[in-house]
Design brief:
Blueprint: H1 3-10, H2 19-22, E1 34-40, H3 41-51, E2 55-61, H4 75-83, E3 86-89, H5 96-102, E4 111-114, H6 115-119, H7 137-151, H8 156-169, H9 171-184, E5 188-191, H10 197-202, E6 206-207, H11 211-219, H12 225-236, E7 243-246, H13 252-264, E8 268-271, H14 282-298
Parallel strand pairs: 1-2, 1-3, 3-4, 5-6, 5-7, 7-8
Helix pairs in contact: 3-7, 3-8, 7-8, 9-14
């Protein structure tokens, strides 16, 4: 079974027994506390930072072994979403299970925030990994603060202050990205999937391997023999400086790529799609990856 199909089966709608592994807790509705459900723990963590003690946040997808592209939800996720006062989804086909649950009904007056809509991202095949677009995250923070204020107006000042603190905390990330662009703009890199695509673009780096190869890997398909040969050649002949590797979901193909880069002496920077449990918050995780990329480019 292909890796993405296997993960979908592992955390699919029919697998209620695994609900505890793909979601956590439920959003309470205590007076003055807004119950928030985020599709991914990335947005859940950001919402927690903005809302502070006036929010109770549940993230449906928090297991690093879960592939968000194929997660289909389960009864527990449905119950969480249907009881929430605010639901945060990424959009762009990344978490379609949320829309399916929302269509079944739910809490009266529930509000929904789509990050895709906040950022106005459109197109036939946009990159859905929007949390790597660091410079635009203040827009998302402002939207979250606005939704929370609409639900619980008495805490509007606290929500706005939380968003302001979040915006300020992005300065080290933006500074690191600016340093990469200043020193290495135009440098060619490789990635197994488009996960860090917005980071690559903001840093002024260029994809030096076939676009179709990474798209196939992201979609859970086998790249064409021609794209595979070109990708391998770009690695072994050092046409790229760094390999950005999705360490969250791997298979025989991506493992081979990692081994090839190691043999060729190409630095590897691991990236992931959900906030790993080893990091205290979103900013610590992203800064770690940004600095790792900076070091790799210099090495």
């Amino acid at each position: 079974m292909p890796r993405r199909l296997a993960l979908a089966a592992a955390c699919g709608l029919a697998t209620a027994a695994l609900a505890g592994g793909c979601g956590s807790g439920s959003a309470p509705t205590a007076p003055g506390v807004v119950g928030v459900v985020a599709a991914e723990n990335v947005w859940g963590d950001i919402a927690s930072q903005i809302g502070g003690r006036y929010v109770a946040v549940t993230s449906v997808i928090s297991d690093p072994n879960t592939d968000p592209h194929l997660y289909e939800g389960d009864p527990r996720a449905a119950a969480q979403v249907n009881s929430a006062q605010l639901v945060i989804e990424n959009g762009l086909g990344y978490d379609d299970f949320i829309d399916k649950i929302l269509a079944t009904g739910g809490r009266r007056g529930r509000r929904v925030l789509s990050v895709k809509k906040v950022l106005g991202v459109t197109g036939s095949n946009p990159n859905p990994h929007l949390w790597y677009w660091t410079a635009r995250l203040p827009e998302v923070a402002a939207a979250i603060a606005g939704r929370l204020s609409a639900i619980e107006p008495t805490h509007r000042a606290a929500f706005l202050a939380g968003a302001a603190r979040f915006d300020a905390s992005l300065k080290p990330l933006l500074s690191t990205i600016a340093t990469i662009k200043r020193r290495y703009a135009g440098t060619k890199i490789a990635y197994t999937e488009r996960v860090p695509g917005y980071l690559v673009a903001a840093s002024g780096l260029a994809l030096g391997t076939p676009v179709a190869f990474s798209q196939a890997i992201e979609d859970g398909n086998d790249p064409s023999p021609q794209d595979t040969a070109a990708f391998d050649r770009d690695i072994t002949t050092h046409q790229v400086k760094v390999l950005l590797y999705n360490a969250q979901v791997v298979d025989a193909q991506t493992t081979k790529i990692e081994q090839l880069a190691t043999s060729a002496g190409i630095p590897i920077v691991g990236v992931s799609e959900t906030l790993p449990p080893a990091f205290s918050d979103f900013q610590a995780w992203q800064l770690h990856q940004d600095r790792a990329l900076l070091r790799a480019l210099g090495g």
